[in-house]
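Supplementary Note 3. Input sequence used for the single-chain structure prediction.
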Amino acid sequence: MLLLAAATVLALTGCAELAAFVAGEPQATDATDVGPSPGESLLPDATVTPSPPRTTQLERRFLVVPAPATLDVLIVVDNSMSMANVQQAFFEGRIVGSLANALRAPALGPDGSNKPCTSGDHSGCALPDLRVGVVSSDLGAPLGGLGNCSVGNGALLQSISRISSCLTPSAPWIAYNAAGLNVGGAQLDVVKALDEAIACIGTLGELGCGFEHTLEAMRRAIDPAFAINPGFLRPDATLAVILLTNEDDCSAADARLFDSSTNVLGPLTSHRCFANGFNCGDADLWSAGTKLGCRPAGPYLHEVRSRYVDFLQSLKPEGRLLLAAVAGAATARVEVVDSDLKATLAPACSGTITSAEPALRIRTLVDALAPDAQMLDICGTSKGDLSFIGNAVRSAPALSGICLHSPLLDKSGALLCAQGDTPTKGTSCQSSCLQAAQCNVVEIANPGTSAATQTPIPRCDTTAFGASGQSDCGATCPCWRIVSDPSTCSTAAPHYLQILRKTNSLSPGTFVKVSCIASAVPWGDPGLAALPLCP
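The predicted structure, written as discrete structure tokens, is reproduced below.
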């Protein structure tokens, strides 16, 4: 954690620094990535001001047939001041080992340690094909004139040792497969060796920038458009992202957030990120006191939903994306306090190792990806448990459909719903028109191989829409339909896209990619009232 001192006057090189920062973007930022998104926050009791609805392309993926477990793990480590002890506790506490142990399965055979590998005792079972990469949250902060924020690590995988007497991998990432672990030394206990190797490259120290770009570093590290770490992310692997930080994300969309030549955005401390990245009603976010209904808002920080939630969900199918955030727990109610005459957020938690500010932006990401994402308390790091990731990978379910968390629109932009749906308070649908959904559904078999195929799935007959009990696809098999199914999804966002089939003889790893025209304004948002309901 770092309260950065107000810094030097903007140098003549400031324009070049700004250009370099912006040049890190592989493509121009679209209009949906600037400014506050109504209802973007999924945090409790967030208040939202109605605003004109926007249209977006909703993209989701889900596994139809699970594939053999293959896992890529990306760990994003906050390496700013006060994080050294946290890193040590996280890695030496063997928290990553809890993930690895949960991955063991009898179907993978024994690991060679002579320990039991049975249905009741997995301690001697092998791990699946596994990769682990580490990046820092440090992307620098141009225009600030701050020495430790001048460059950053550029979302590159970190594979060198910063602690003595440890073994590093032979590649930019740690890999475990049939050939063994790509680090030297004896490996009779592969989980112990894996833990030690991850600690070796993951203990990054605390000399990084105090403006943590945790979410942006995550995206840049694995986004093919940036091509920063080619070869790390495999198309057929499950992706698990682990975030370790004691502050919230400050992924800047506008480098002027760090401009030290003016105080128009407030003093150049890490509180600038909160004060210029959130809307808490009409509250002054620089003054001490309780702030209610806080939600992420632009234009200085990247929008969480459009830039990170949508990106991750477009990258991997449902069941192939998992996330754990080891950070400060957050609600929409926060406390601003004066510390040494500087505004800062009151800790969300305090422990013997660290205290942590509330990570509201990170919590927004976690809530959007739930139940495949969890928030773990960083103040109790030694008690943390990532086994839910291992359990999910080991027992990935076959799915026949997926919940659509954004309201669907027809060709004219009218809101689609089923009779009885309540898109927003005071609005109830009097008829059903889900059959007018504008979706493109494609089944992809043998992904990432030379035998990969893409097969469009047609829309079911109109009579199949809206009746969740209907299961006969008739002459159009397979086909897709959308039903209102609050028991499978939620009463807040009840729509479920389902594939109807007569048989399921698909190859392992087959998944379905869904793309639908939808409202960028979420269910329950007052802004939906501006949309006409379908006839």
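The two ends are 54 Å apart (CA to CA). DSSP finds nine helices and 21 strands in the chain.
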